[in-house]
Design brief:
This protein has 239 residues and is mainly α. It has helices spanning 2-13, 16-34, 49-67, 72-77, 79-84, 90-109, 113-122, 130-155, 161-182, 192-197, 201-209, 215-238. The chain has one domain (2-238). 75% of the residues lie in helices and 0% in strands.
């Protein structure tokens, strides 16, 4: 499993496109937070709230671009048949690709800790609410974990990396914001809207971002990851 994990990481960083994706992700975050209008420095108090509001939408674009090659490139080039001859179980292949891509995503998120250090050093008062910030990073981790599972699954359904990216983008967007938007429809009222919203990723991400790590939110994220793992596993049986 770890051999495949390392192979995924090497493949990404041996390609200049990988560095471009990481650079774009960090530059957009940096410009929005520190340069554009209504940036963090204009707030008058130490907070990374705007970063944690922006980051999910950037990850929604960033992660499908990373995971799109996972299976689709192997299927298209014919190397997937060779991979299947290795003494590896299907679950180990999926896990290797999943953790390899998740590590890449976390490498992209890690430099954003500089925002935390910068705001903390610039603040004149008590500084950033560390509890809420830690909760937001935990929420961001689980969000990245779910999006990566969706991306890996999408890549197993097509030979085209572009189609894999678009499919992953659609599913991630639907699960992240689709149920939130659906819950606002007028005919969903008297508590029904709440339960519809609970089906979406955004609801649970916001809960954890408040600094309260609820078991129900963790179960939700792990269940979604497990669902897409099982779909990928079933799809691999057909390849």
């Amino acid at each position: 499993m770890w051999a495949i994990c390392k192979k995924e990481i090497r493949h990404f960083f041996n390609n200049p496109f990988g560095y471009v994706i990481l650079a774009i992700f960090l530059l957009i975050n940096g410009f929005v937070l520190f340069v554009f209008d209504d940036n963090i420095l204009d707030f008058g108090y130490a907070t990374l709230e705007s970063f944690f509001q922006l980051a999910p939408w950037l990850l929604l674009l960033f992660i499908p671009a990373i995971t799109m090659h996972s299976f689709s490139e192997e299927i298209q080039s014919g190397t997937f048949e060779i991979l299947q001859t290795k003494p590896l179980k299907r679950g180990e292949i999926i896990a290797g690709k999943y953790f390899g891509n998740l590590i890449i995503v976390l490498i992209g998120i890690f430099p954003t800790l500089l925002y935390l250090i910068s705001i903390q050093s610039l603040s004149s008062g008590n500084g950033i609410d560390t509890g809420a910030t830690a909760g937001s990073y935990i929420g961001l981790f689980f969000l990245a974990a779910v999006f990566t599972a969706i991306g890996i699954c999408s890549s197993s359904f097509t030979k085209s990396t572009v189609v894999a990216m678009m499919l992953s983008l659609f599913i991630c967007g639907l699960l992240f914001y689709g149920f939130n938007a659906l819950s606002r429809l007028p005919f969903l009222s008297r508590g029904t809207d709440y339960y519809v919203e609970m089906l979406g990723i955004d609801f649970h991400y916001r809960n954890i971002s408040r600094g309260l790590v609820d078991t129900r939110d963790l179960i939700y994220f792990l269940s979604v990851i497990g669902l897409f793992f099982s779909i990928t596993f079933r799809k691999m049986k057909q390849l």
